Amino acid sequence: MLGDVGGTNARFALQHAPGAALTDIRTLSAKEHPSLEVAMRHYLHLSGDAVPVEAAIGIANPVVGDWVQMTNHHWAFSIEAMRQTLGLKRFVVVNDFTALALSLPSLRAHEWHQLGGQVPRERAPMGLVGPGTGLGVSGLLPVGENGWVPLAGEGGHVTLSPVTPREWAVVAWLQARFGHASAERAVSGQGLENLYQALCALDGVSEAPALTAAQVSQRGLAGDDVRCTEALQLFCAWLGSVAGNLALTLGATGGVYIGGGIAPRLGLFLQRSALRERFEAKGRFRPLLANIPLLLIDAATSPALLGAARALD
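The structure corresponding to this sequence follows.
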């Protein structure tokens, strides 16, 4: 049994042998299940009361030791206790973006869309960023002839770096509200909501509506609300900055991949935004970054499920 667990949804699948195709792929709402165990049991029931021998999940949370407490959701559990309760021989839990990073070498050309740069170098470091409920960040480093090592970290919580006067004002608003203005406070679903509220406050809108990330995106893409559109523009610009920082840190000449649930839905808006310009805008290192491709993951089947399978190898 394989899982990709986020703060909003949990996606599960079955794999009957190493390297086999995934089957019974289903997405369950996290808020409709009181615990991960209940969600997993519900999925197994929906899948004909399957009885897995092993399980691996990628979860939107740091994984350190046995106890896992989700950052963006109330689910919490002991890995070993869950293994015993579900009757599994092995239960592997990794960060969701660690799992997604493990899937990158397996992605085929039709599963991503390139946004500038040159052809990705083979057997070279890769970066991964993904705005969803939060902001996931990871990387993948080549080891030996065919091996890869994923990087587990919380790069979404690095300090947000403003460039324009408007961005400085937005960051000041975020700092006043949250104390630390992290990248995730702007480049995520909650970040879109924060950006809209910040822009309303800066423009003197006394009673700004409490729009959801989906509403900000819809109105911004349709051009129905100038502040929603500006929030999307800031989102894309900062996503580019974060991706560029990651590319420099890792020397990611194998490309920087963009995952998560938000970016693929922005379509042409993302392509026409400041994303690529801000990715490359690193002063003396612009020529290096100009060659590094940005690769938008748009695979229909969650690649993180394949990455979870790799975690069992």
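The chain has a mean pLDDT of 94.
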